[in-house]
Amino acid sequence: MRRMKKSSIFCGNIPSNWEYKRLKYVINVIMGQSPDSSAINDENGVPFMQGATEFGVSHPHVTQFCDNPKKLSREGDILMTVRAPVGKMNISDQVYCIGRGLCSIKAIGVNPDYLKYFIIKSGEDFNYYSNGTTYDAITISDIKNFYICVPSTPEQVAIVHYLDIKCKAIDEAIERHKEIIKKLEKYKSDNLSYFTLNGLHKIKKIKDSGVEWLENVPKSWKMIRGKYLFEEVSEKSKTGEEELLTVSQYTGITPRSQKNVTMFEAESLVGYKICEAGDIAANTMWLWAGAIGVSDYYGVISPSYNVYRQIDNAYDKDYLDCLLRSKPLVQHYKALSTGIRPSRLRLYPTQFLNIKFPVPPKDEQREIASYLKEVFRRTDEAIKRKDNIISKLEDYRKAVIYNAVTGKIDCRTYSRTKSVNTVDTIQKE
After folding, report:
1. CB 394 within 8 A of CB 188
2. Which of 20, 142, 286, 382 is paired with 321 by a 20 to 30 Å CA distance?
């Protein structure tokens, strides 16, 4: 066992022969800047990397001419977010202009791959220095004054070799479980679409639906235009005290308070549209992607969204929620939507209420909804198990990186067999 010495709350004890120095001695750092509107989409420009998403660095959408090479991030540099979420990182795959939400870090006095792993380890630690009134952020001074553990060059190489192999095994395991989750989500979606539009039982008597988005339906089902089933309602909040609801193609209609959202929220909800339990809420901007559903909550939604209410209660609300999100119908929303590009597509009430919808007998609707509820329950349980495994693997990855870059384990004595066995044990839990 090697001798250790104290360092900081971020690294704990480190090997006594390691250096502990500020980042400014081993990196060059460039802070991003606002795009120059006169240089945007210049034909001689380079991609402009704006900032961060929930999962890390965002993709560039425009180009900008930059005549100062010192302001460019190069291939292999570390791109790190300096505004909330602080500390998310990625490796630059080419030359970029970078926005104010990012910085570019280049190793000058330490192994670049070792630095990458140390920054990964320190991502959450940077939040210790972040502050702000509108959003959390860190400064170039904060970054430069952050400390890094610096072992000898040969040991840095050993640490990188260890972590490359170890993290690869963990990441491959994570990807396998994510692929299974994708298949389970597809299984849910396929079941929802098939049984909602065909019924539970194999019926010999079918008929032409009479609409282009749906081929056949059981003979006992009706096809009714939306304007006879629903009416648009635009009741506005007078106090703004109602629960704010979100409408998503992934999670349906949920209270915003139950979601982890960092997007801007209006100071007042006065004038937002009332949505009652049982109402249809549609995110007009993302309806083409399936952002619609039947609400279980009383609350308000954005004034730019639409609320529809059943006229004669022809639908069981659970069946209706499935129907509105079925893939063929969502594809039909997209076909009817207008706009110059996907992010601008809109389906307005006139078009929505002109759609012909299948209306099964009410008892059959309830039977379909009940069956799908059980399918969703079992599938969601399987997805939750996979999510738990992924979470454990991600925590294990963090621990592995932390222990390696702070010298808690000696990577020069690495055992490949032990690494693989540990990952397998987590997956089997």
Report:
1. no
2. 382
Among 118, 116, 143, 119, smallest CA distance to 129 is for 143
Hey, which residues does 397 pair with through a beta bridge? Answer: none
Taking the C-alpha atoms of residue 127 and residue 135, their distance in angstroms, rounded to an integer, is 12
**How many other β-carbons are positioned within 10 Å of the β-carbon of residue 371?**
13
How does residue 39 score in pLDDT terms, banded at 50, 70 and 90? low
Please state which of the ranges 120-129, 150-159, 310-319 shows the lowest mean pLDDT. Answer: 120-129
Neighbours of 267 (CB within 10 A): 7
Sheet holding 96-98, edge to edge: 62-64, 46-49, 96-98, 72-73
Q: What is the per-residue pLDDT across 56-78, written as a single tens digit (0 to 9) for each?
A: 556 665 676 776 667 788 889 99
Which residues contact residue 384 at a Cβ distance below 8 angstroms, ignoring those fewer than 6 apart? none
**Which of 76, 4, 31 minimizes the C-alpha distance to 410?**
4
| DSSP state letter for 283 | -
Distances (CA, A) of 144 to 27, 202, 275, 406: 8, 68, 50, 19
Given a contact cutoff of 8 angstroms between Cβ atoms, the answer to whether 77 and 91 are in contact is yes
Cβ(51)–Cβ(99) below 8 Å: yes
Residue 247 CA: distances (Å) to CA of 265, 339, 380: 14, 20, 20
Give how far the C-alpha of residue 242 lies from the chain's centroid of Cα atoms, to the nearest Å: 27
Region 227-240: mean pLDDT is 96
3-state secondary structure of 307: strand
Sign of the alpha-carbon dihedral angle for 76, 176, 394, 422? negative
Delimiting residues of CATH 3.90.220.20 domain(s) in the chain: 1-150, 200-359
How far is C-alpha 145 from the geometric centre of its chain's CA atoms?
31
> Both tokens of residue 336?
């009817």
For domain 200-359, give the fold: Adenine-n6-DNA-methyltransferase TaqI; Chain A, domain 2 (3.90.220)
The Cα 119–Cα 56 span in angstroms is 13
Q: What angle separates helix 153-198 from helix 317-324, to the nearest 10 degrees?
A: 120
What pairing do the DSSP bridges indicate for beta strands 72-73 and 96-98?
Answer: antiparallel
Instruction: Name residues whose C-beta falls within 8 Å of residue 106's C-beta, 6 or more positions apart in sequence.
Output: 27, 28, 29, 74, 77, 78, 112
CATH node for 1-150: 3.90.220.20
Which residue, chain included where needed, has tokens 């929303």? 333
Q: What is the largest CA-CA distance in the chain?
A: 81
Q: Scan for tokens 């792993």, then name that residue.
A: 117
Instruction: Say how far apart CA 375 and CA 393 lie, in whole Å.
Output: 27
